[in-house]
Specification:
Distance between the termini: 25 Å
Number of strands: 18
Structural class: alpha/beta
Order of helices and strands: HEEHEHEHEHHEEHEHEHEEEEHEHEEEE
Radius of gyration: 23 Å
Strand content: 15-25%
Strand order of the largest sheet: 11-10-9-8-14-6-15-18-17
Largest sheet: 9 strands, mixed
Length: 370
């Protein structure tokens, strides 16, 4: 019972890093002695001290005979910081409770083995499901090489995303649009298509004035904006390019000879048979240590991603408006001939935002606990 209580507190600490730790995982640590918390720590950003070290430093010289609660297996290798296992060992901590094993091959099981061999009592698997949920992005990339993908759509009650003439501002409420910025801020990449950029003229950035959280958010890096532009339709004078200096990747079949600003990069390595291969693109994103991708696109790209089984989470902001059968559908993909062949998601969470409903669906609710 005490283990669950303290691990819950460690998980709360881990969540504090959700906007700043990527590509590293979110980790929290609590050190307990004589039923009192003597040390607390959470990993803030790459290169900074790990949660365990911060907690040990806070506890000072009082750690001998104590118990540490860590949400992810401590590392036993040199990265940007020294291994945590050595510090845990020399601190005199007697027992370590770990929520889940680290999926990183450099760490996985090695930290636990080292600590056990050196006489520390280890218990792991306490609140494992919750710990994996916090780090679902990291777990997905480490296990598959692919980032966790979230596809967002603002839709009408009859499942339409725009009128036939392309008008879509605004189907959903201001409250829903503010919530989108919270999701954007939690992702390393915002992905879209040149068609969406040209039609809707989005900035694809995080506007922090739309997020009611602490001022620390203002120093967070903006997500990389990735635009699939196979026909080189995006020009250097487009507002999306000019109005923000945040990084942009243009995914193309071939480069052009135009003068692009330094924050724009043309990438020509994600194609097959003169078409952009979406799986190759996501693998390239994963190779760049990107754990998560937020997608805002139209019917064609959204449909292609779902058809290729590349979406982990579908997030719908549904308005009570009705746009009619001539309006544009959420997805365009192949016709199904049998119900048992259709694409199916699972309801994960439903919330109301002012006049709208936000529906979060997942392709496989069990992925993160495998």
């Amino acid at each position: 019972m005490n283990d669950i209580f303290y691990m819950k507190e460690a998980l709360k600490l881990a969540e504090k890093g959700k906007l700043t730790t990527a590509p590293n995982p979110n980790v929290g640590c609590i050190i307990v002695k004589n039923k009192k918390i003597i040390g607390m720590g959470w990993h803030k950003k790459p290169g900074d001290l790990h949660a365990e070290i911060i907690a040990i430093n806070m506890a000072k010289e009082n750690t001998f005979g104590s118990t540490a609660y860590v949400t992810l297996e401590p590392c036993n290798h040199y990265g940007k910081t020294p291994p945590c296992c050595q510090k845990l060992l020399t601190s005199g901590i007697q027992r370590i409770v770990i929520a889940t094993i680290d999926p990183n091959p450099k760490v996985s099981g090695k930290g636990i083995d080292f600590l056990k061999k050196n006489g520390i009592i280890i218990n792991y698997g306490i609140m494992e499901k919750e710990a994996k949920e916090i780090n679902k992005n990291f777990f997905k990339r480490m296990k598959t090489g692919l980032p966790w993908t979230q596809l967002k759509l603002g839709v009408s009650l009859d499942g339409r995303i725009a009128l036939n003439n392309g008008e879509s501002k605004w189907i959903t409420s201001h409250t829903s649009r503010k919530d989108v910025h919270k999701f954007r801020s939690q992702n390393q990449v915002i992905l879209s298509s040149s068609k969406t950029i040209i039609n809707d003229n989005p900035l694809l950035n995080v506007r922090y004035k739309n997020i009611n959280e602490n001022k620390e958010m203002e120093i967070i890096n903006q997500p990389i904006r990735i635009i699939i532009d196979s026909k080189n339709k995006i020009q250097p004078n487009h507002p999306t390019i000019k109005m923000s200096k945040n990084k942009i990747w243009l995914i193309r079949i071939k480069k052009d000879n135009q003068q692009w600003p330094n924050h724009v990069k043309q990438i020509i390595s994600c194609q097959i048979k003169k078409k952009i291969d979406l799986l190759k693109l996501l693998l390239l994103i994963g190779k760049n240590e990107i754990n998560s991708v937020w997608i805002e696109a139209g019917s064609s790209l959204s449909g292609s991603l779902i058809e290729k089984n590349l979406i982990d989470e579908l997030i719908l902001y549904m308005s009570p408006k009705l746009l009619g059968q001539t309006a544009k559908p959420m997805f365009i993909f192949k016709k199904f001939l049998k119900i048992n062949q259709t694409t199916q998601f699972l309801f994960h969470k439903i919330d109301q935002f002012n006049t709208d409903i936000r529906i979060i669906l997942r392709k496989n609710k069990n992925f993160i606990v495998k």
